[in-house]
Amino acid sequence: MAKIDKFIGSLIKQGEGLTIEFKECRNSLNRDVYQTVCAFANRHGGHILLGVNDSGKVTGVEPTAIEQIKKDFTTAINNPQKIDPPCYLSIDEVSHGKNKLLHIYVPESSQVHRCNGRILDRNEDGDLDITSHTRLVAALYQRKQTVYCENRVFPFASIDDLRHDLIDKCRQIASVRRQDHPWVRLDNLDLLKSAQLYQTDPVSGKSGITLAGILLLGKDSLLLSAVPYHRTDLILRKVNLDRYDDRDLVETNLIESYERIMAFVAKHLPDPFFLEGDTRISLRDAIFREIASNILIHREYTNAFPAKVIIERGQVRTENSNKPHGFGALNLLTFTPFPKNPVIARFFREIGRADELGSGVRNLMKYGRIYGGTDPELIEGDVFKTTLKVPEFGFSEETASSNFSLNKSGQVNGQVNGQVNGQVAAVDEKWVLMALKACIEPQKSSEIQKIVGIKHRETFQRKYLDSLLADGLLEHTVPDKPQSRLQKYRLTAKGREYLKNK
Prior knowledge:
The chain is of the alpha+beta class. 39% of the residues lie in helices and 18% in strands. The chain folds into four domains: 2-129, Methyltransferase, Cobalt-precorrin-4 Transmethylase, Domain 2 (2-Layer Sandwich); 149-226, no CATH class; 232-389, Heat Shock Protein 90 (2-Layer Sandwich), CATH 3.30.565; 405-500, Arc Repressor Mutant, subunit A (Orthogonal Bundle).
């Protein structure tokens, strides 16, 4: 806490400027707070301190008003009638001396934002309305296009070059998370426009799918044409240290890339039992959800350096091309989150695969410490590197090299059953056995569902079949195309061992 107080004190000492703004806001929010949010997002980002007057005197925020101020702020910045496109920001309560302050960090955005329909830019210590200044507005758009490659417009890429099944899937996921989600009422083109995946180039005047749209939803042929070096290399290296024990080279859209990363991790890392309060959570999934989304969201896509996830004995390392805003190890108490690809990040948040800016790193540090016994290490540079300690849970060279094809010495039940409990502990064992026996020969999901007698297709897929896949008891017959109409499921070596010992 002393470090945070020191950081806030340093902001106050610097005084108002291009990236620092004070607002008194003793009992409620000033209306011009949102103008500053807009101006900061359009320029270089910045810090807003509520409870400090223009001269830098700390007046504090009334403690009884803090919760209402937070609520009002969160509601407004997510309202497109106030800020368009909406911002996803947090407002943090901090102490300075005896006073309570509120701190808002506004990152630079890849979009041009409007506040109440007006475009604002930051000029020294003031917010400047540039809506009627055509030259300034054009320069602002051009600067955004240059800094953020995700906004590059591909006018010759049509909506037919995107995966419509993937758009429908994302719309459905968003609607499950929020029944009144606006995507539900939009057709595919309007959804793309709403998500900033279809834009107009302010220089050429041409409209089209952006690089972000291609990365998220493009067919593989279009994706590899636009970004030929796009790939995520997933490597298991525990026995064969010169090469690898298992590998998945992922060269598809970011939605399915995320799923492939999570499946690879579930295949090769244990998931120990853990209670948070009265609720059981998957430490492994909580950690690698953040790692997977960060690898895909914060990558510098103009760089040909391939992203890597390398699972080794006792640790996992990741490497990702990066446009750094600092160098060296990240300090959780003082680091400032910076969005590398805000449009992609926002899309991931809408489908529940990412959290608010900065909270993912905090979750990674929190759960990583519990999972591996020590703090994860995050190093920022031209290549962003993460090192996370992980438990081994009895892996031996024999088990690693044979990919869970274990001996009969009694070690089998301990390992296989221990890992099955990670995903399907809540599933009836009778059903598990029926499903596995059904897949001795490859079967379609509909055929497995019919055999075991579960009526609801989505429940069957999400709660049961996906659990067996994640535990490595079943595998796809067409692993590179999970949504293929030819897709079937078959037993793995681990699944056969499980059946043999029942």
